[in-house]
Amino acid sequence: MANDSVRTSHPLGDPLELAAVRAEGGVALDPILIVADSEQEALLLKVALRVAGVQTRLVFTTGHTETVDYFCRVTEYADPTLYPLPRIVLLYTQILAQSGVDLIKQINRTSKDLAIAVVAGSAAENHIENAYASGASCYLRKPEKPDDLVELLRNFRSFWLETKR
C-alpha cells in the first residue's frame, strides 16, 4: 500500500512536522496504525479521523501480511525511525474473520502493552467475544452513516488519546 492515495508524501505524514520533532531533540510521536480491509476503507477512515479531530500521525496497512511485516520490521517497514511501533492499532473491518482474530493474537505476542481497538460492521456476539478473547482492548460497532462514524471516532479520540494514557 506504499504507493497509494491514502499516504501522503511521507508514511508518517508531513515530513516537515517529523523534521521539527526531531530537530527539537524529540522522538517522533508514536502513530496510530490503521489496519483496513482495503485502500478505499483506509481513505474513508483517514478522512473521518481528521474530521473527528484526531491529529496523531496515521500509518495504514491493508491485510494480515502487511501488518505482520510492520511489526516484524521487514520489507518497507524495516526502519523504526520511519515506522515506530504504534501507540494504538485500529483494526477497521467489516467482519472480524479468523484472520483478524489471528492478527490480534500475533500483534499481542509482539507488543503486550499495545491497545488494539476493533471497529467492525458485525454485531454478532461470537465476533465480539472472539475479539476480546484474542486480546482486543475494545470492540466498536462500525456505523453505517458517515456522520455517525465521525461521532464514534470523536469518542474514540476522547477516551484513547485524551483520557487513557
What does this structure look like?
α4 links the parallel β3 (88-93) and β4. With 165 residues, the chain is α/β, with parallel strands linked by helices. It is globular, with a radius of gyration of 15 Å. Mean pLDDT is 81; it is low at 1-28. The protein has helices spanning 15-23, 39-51, 64-72, 98-110, 125-134, 146-163, and strands at residues 32-36, 58-62, 88-93, 115-120, 138-141. It has a five-stranded parallel beta sheet with strand order 2-1-3-4-5, sandwiched between helices.
Mean pLDDT: 81
Helical segment count: 6
Strand fraction equals: 15-25%
The count of DSSP E runs of length 2 or more, i.e. the number of strands, is: 5
Structural class: alpha/beta
Widest β-sheet, arrangement of strands: 2-1-3-4-5
What is the makeup of the main sheet? Answer: 5 strands, parallel
End-to-end distance, in Å?
30 Å
The coarse overall form would be: globular
Unreliable spans: 1-28
Which sequence of SSEs, written as H and E, runs from N to C? HEHEHEHEHEH
Percent helix range: 40-55%
Radius of gyration: 15 Å
Outline of the structure:
The protein is 44% helix and 16% strand. It is an alpha/beta fold and 165 residues long.
